[in-house]
Specification:
Number of helices of chain B: 6
Largest sheet of chain B: 4 strands, antiparallel
Strand order of the largest sheet of chain A: 2-3-4
Structural class of chain A: alpha+beta
CATH topology of the largest domain in chain A: Cytochrome-c3 Hydrogenase, chain B
CATH topology of the domain at 89-212 in chain B: Alpha-Beta Plaits
Largest interface: A-B, 76 and 56 residues
Order of helices and strands of chain A: EHEEEHHHHHEEHHHHHEHEEEHHHH
Radius of gyration of chain A: 22 Å
Largest sheet of chain A: 3 strands, antiparallel
Number of strands of chain B: 8
Radius of gyration of chain B: 31 Å
Oligomer: heterodimer
Distance between the termini of chain B: 36 Å
Shape of chain A: globular
Order of helices and strands of chain B: EHEHEHEEHEEHHE
Helix content of chain B: 10-25%
Number of helices of chain A: 16
CATH class of the domain at 89-212 in chain B: Alpha Beta
Structural class of chain B: alpha+beta
Strand order of the largest sheet of chain B: 4-5-7-8
Distance between the termini of chain A: 28 Å
CATH architecture of the largest domain in chain A: Orthogonal Bundle
Chain lengths: ~375, ~230
């Protein structure tokens, strides 16, 4: 495998030197950083031939907040709240990733109640993340209505989580050594109500988008990502599974209580936008199944096994831990020098790797397909830059 | 900037085997236009799919009340936030207007972004113990992480459901949370003398109490109406 390193300036100069007749002249267009369908401040430099995309070069750095550097001056409890601001649609899973890494390194054993509640909340968060993605995908493809339906159901779920956590987006719920608060007394009933409410709504989703011929034609055989390319580019989550690689940390390296529940991992066959679409819609169904199985069996116990303002000091060394967020594998790498602050904290964020799959997916296709393909990647830009 | 050439990446490495998970479900490949169908068949199936979506929207169009989540500005008077909702931070005062903050500064130390500044009197005249002077909370930098509420050993902090906090000047988001500068409710009770306790609770200046600190003489916060911006 060869890696070709070239600056953006070189690429533009190269292309401008090869001007032919006006019919076939290649040109560069900036898509973003203020483009509605990039879902944030992502800039794509597109090399175009007419309407065909020859190259697609992502340019990052527009929402870099140096979360990793700031974390070096914080204790581990405070590091957690910054992860809300990375992939804000799976904030509980991000919190959990840091908590898991610190717990494994410090040897803190959490009880069953904490693991159950964490798993339930992670799955609820996965559902609400996919609900938003589903609505936005419709909007990107030109159908505004699905967005309202996705947001409507997400609102119901947000209320359920707000009652226990007190926040709607930046949750900061999972701490190293437990949870910030116990579940609200109403929680179990409200989640049951939600499951009852949302199951039929998923069929409605199918009526609105899945069975629609326009959506099918715009997703099928568009943005094909082969399994091998997906693995080579480090894609994870629904992007990898859509390409037919059945790799899910919840099954392969179970954490939480995923080893005690029965669920299926949806995978695609071709690796086009349609497969990624279907994988996510099916994941919502499977998440409902997981929550349903766990909800009645939450064991009694404390919600915090470690006193809150006690300093957690990790032994000297390097620690890595990872889990499956709504978009793929979030890895947390901690280098510790025996203090209560990390010497270095690195996040392997799923969106960063998924983003680079855009070019092999879309090479030679139309700009309109690029929008659909990018939407099927489900990118959250603050997670790419951190 | 480093980019790889996707074509080469595809061909030069051997295929990888990840094995198969035992429980997996495989995506179906519906194709209305893909199979060999007659034009009328394609048209009918396409029409049917679109019609079902339209019927869904039509059913909600006829019953709009089923999809309304919140009529926000209209229901302002009746809107109830959840009790755990993290809105504005407040210092709990009991019915006599006494707070429970000793000024121990644990919240200040554990605040991830320095949004809390607690100043204290080293020795209160009446009790002879340190007492709270000002509890300053900067809402403009606060991330509502709830850690101050959790770590407070005296449970004197709470997050309220007040979420309408937009103002036109960032400096208006700096609050002094305590009603008076002085000892806690417990310490005042120990004094035994009601007159003396009342005297301790008198506001010392106009910035005592849960008021925005606009115009306050504080480090790092310029006065309003000076024409200087916050960063200057």
């Amino acid at each position: 495998m060869t890696v070709e390193v070239s600056s953006l300036k070189e690429l533009v100069e190269q292309a401008s030197g090869t001007s032919g007749s006006p019919d076939t002249q290649e040109y560069f267009v900036n898509m973003g950083p203020q483009h509605p369908s990039t879902h944030g401040v992502l800039r794509l430099v597109l090399k175009l031939d007419g309407e065909r995309v020859l190259r697609c070069i992502p340019v990052l750095g527009y929402i870099h907040r140096s979360i990793e550097k700031i974390s070096e001056h914080m204790n581990y409890m405070n590091c957690v709240h910054l992860t809300d601001r990375m992939d804000y649609l799976s904030s509980i899973m991000n919190n959990w990733a840091v908590a898991k890494a610190v717990e494994e390194a410090a040897g803190i054993e959490v009880n069953d109640r904490i693991r159950y509640i964490r798993t339930i909340f992670a799955e609820l968060e996965r559902i609400q993340s996919h609900q938003l993605w589903w609505g936005v995908l419709g909007m990107d493809l030109g159908a505004f209505t699905p967005f309202l339906y996705g947001i409507r159901d997400r609102e119901v779920l947000n209320d359920v989580m707000e009652e226990t956590i007190g926040a709607r987006l930046t949750m900061n719920y999972v701490l190293p050594g437990g949870l910030m608060a116990d579940i609200h007394p109403n929680f179990v009933n409200r989640v049951k109500e939600f499951i009852k409410y949302f199951r039929p709504k998923l069929d409605e989703y199918d009526d609105l988008l899945t069975n629609n011929v326009i959506i099918q034609e715009r997703l099928r055989n568009v943005g094909v990502l082969s399994a091998q390319t997906a693995v080579q580019y480090g894609a994870t989550g629904p992007v990898l599974r859509g390409s037919g690689v059945a790799f899910d940390l919840r099954k392969d390296h179970p954490y939480g209580v995923y080893d005690q529940v029965d669920f299926e991992v949806p995978v695609g066959t071709v690796g086009d936008s349609w497969d990624r679409y279907w994988v996510r819609v099916e994941e919502m169904r499977q998440s409902l199944r997981i929550v349903e199985q766990l909800l009645d069996n939450i064991p009694p116990g404390d919600f915090l096994v470690k006193k809150l303002n006690s300093k957690i000091k990790l032994p000297e060394g390097r620690y890595y831990s990872q889990l499956e967020t709504a978009r793929g594998i979030l890895g947390v790498f901690i280098t510790s020098d025996k203090k209560d602050e990390p010497y270095r904290l690195h996040y392997r964020s799923p969106n960063f790797n998924n983003l680079w799959c855009l070019e092999p997916m879309i090479k030679g296709d139309y700009i309109a397909s690029l929008i659909g393909a990018m939407s099927s990647l489900d990118l959250v830009i603050p997670d790419i830059d951190r | 900037m480093a980019t790889t050439t996707p074509d080469q990446a595809d061909t030069e490495s051997p295929p990888m085997d990840f094995g198969d998970l035992k429980s997996q479900c495989v995506a179906p490949r519906p194709s209305i236009m893909g199979r060999r169908r007659s034009l009328s068949g394609i048209l009918w199936l396409s029409f049917k799919g679109i019609l079902r979506g339209l019927l869904t929207t039509l059913s909600y169009f006829r019953r709009p009340s089923t999809v309304v989540t919140q009529q926000y500005p209209e229901n302002r008077d009746t809107l109830q936030m959840f009790e755990r909702y993290r809105g504005r931070l407040s210092l709990i005062h009991n019915e006599d207007g006494e707070h429970g903050c000793t000024g121990c500064q644990i919240c200040e130390r554990l605040c991830p972004n320095g949004s809390i500044i607690v100043t204290k009197d080293k020795k209160n005249e009446a009790t002879g113990k340190p007492a709270l002077d000002q509890f300053i909370w900067r809402q403009d930098t606060c991330t509502f992480c709830n850690i101050c509420v959790l770590v407070c050993p005296f449970d004197t902090l709470e997050m309220t459901g007040d979420f309408e906090s937009s103002v036109y000047d960032r400096r208006l988001l700096v609050f002094n949370l305590n009603e008076y500068a002085g000892p806690t409710a417990d310490q005042l009770e120990k004094l035994g003398d009601e007159e003396l306790a009342k005297a301790q609770m008198k506001p010392m200046n106009k910035y005592h109490g849960p008021v925005p600190m606009c115009g306050g003489e504080l480090d790092g916060i310029p006065k309003l109406d000076t024409g200087k911006s916050d960063d200057a």
